[in-house]
Amino acid sequence: MQNETNKPIFVVGSPRSGTSILTWCLGQHPNIVALEESDWIGDLATNLAVHYRSGTARGDRAMLSAMDIQRDEFFATFGKNINELILRHRIDLERKQWECSAPNAPPDNFVPTPSASNPEARWVDGTPEYSFYICGLRKLFPEALFIHIVRDVGSVVRSMLNFPRLGEGSLVANEQEAYNYWFRAVSTCLLAERAYGPRVVFRLRYSDLTNTPEASLRSLLDFLSEPFAVECLTPLQQRINSSNVPADFKLGEAETDPAIVEQATRLSTEVEETPQPAKASPAAAEEMEAAFEKRVQRMATVDSKYYRAQQIIATLQTEHAEQQASYHAELARLQTEHAEQQASYHAKLARLQTEHERHEQGIAELTDRLRKQLGDIRKLSRLLDDTENATARLRSSRRWKLANPGTAIKAKLFPGKVSLGYGHLEKIVAAYSQWRASHPEIAKVEDDRQTSKRT
User: Fold this and answer.
1) Taking a C-beta distance cutoff of 8 angstroms, is the pair 362, 354 a contact?
2) Do 97 and 154 touch, CB atoms closer than 8 A?
3) Strands 145-150 and 122-125
4) Of the given ranges (17-31, 37-51, 315-329, 430-444), which has the lowest mean pLDDT?
5) What is the pTM of this model?
6) What strand order describes the sheet that includes 9-12?
7) In 3-state terms, what secondary structure has residue 226?
């Protein structure tokens, strides 16, 4: 439990309703440190509720149920540690804020000065989005206090439409969205006013803050149980309008639903004219609780779908990994087979090349032998031709006829039937003449030889 003066403070309301300037004002108090807009604490509360459901879903077989850890204790434990963490690092935040605002960096021994009554101090968070998380924030911080700052809808809509957010354009897309945003945020904060009463939620009109700043801040600091500090008025001494609304800027886009405008305008007038409820309403608290549970259920459903989607993704990733492994194994097998086929092909190619070389060598050797044999045939042919010619000359010579008169007479009387009387030589010449007549290609060889001699 936080003591009376270190309860966390949340400034809620629609964007551009004054949450930032009021947070800045409270941050000047010596006992309050102003945080940057956080955004995450509301989601944490919702997620914790989802996880508490998970931790108690199986009754005594679930850890949280088995250990009798109640939901309020579960939330408050996280909230207590967050609160202590923020207070412990207050000096780091204030050092950086000093560095941003002061021309020179603070000294190394810089220490922020807390209030004399409470050296632990407290913090204020002015995140407008927390308007929709008040129920969850109270679960995290049961002693937290909320300031609902409300501003007339027309001024808020003009400011929202002209607010450049980190160079990304307006906070909303169009006029109707701005009216809707204001209506939802203010309606939720008004429900919190009714649900928790004036001891938990303090309504502050922006017009009161700007028109009667000291009186407004005195009332607010009384609500926070903090003494008045004149430093809190400093940010209000100059008009801050970061939205830069042009003086001639007019509302009334043709696409805006008049019913939305009328609904928001009526609620804006009602808030300006009626006081805050004097006591808490159990029915409104139940409505807040139901809305929180609905958000938790929606988040649990989203988480469940996300978990199933993650399981499907994990399954697909496993299947993909298995397919990849199978593919790589098959690829390795095919590469091995290809390498083996390549090796076999190259071996066979080398063998065929060797056989081809041997074949070429055999052809060359055979060609040489045939050329040699052809040369011998040519020589023998020429020798036999010369022998035949010599025989013919001898036969027709006078000397031979005188030496063989009987044979010469017979040859003359019986041409072609009488042996010439050469004996064995005559048989050789006769056989050669017969062979030569049956091999006319020899004449062609001789013609080629004579032609090559002439050339």
Assistant:
1) no
2) no
3) unpaired
4) 430-444
5) 0.67
6) 32-34, 122-125, 9-12, 145-150, 201-205
7) coil
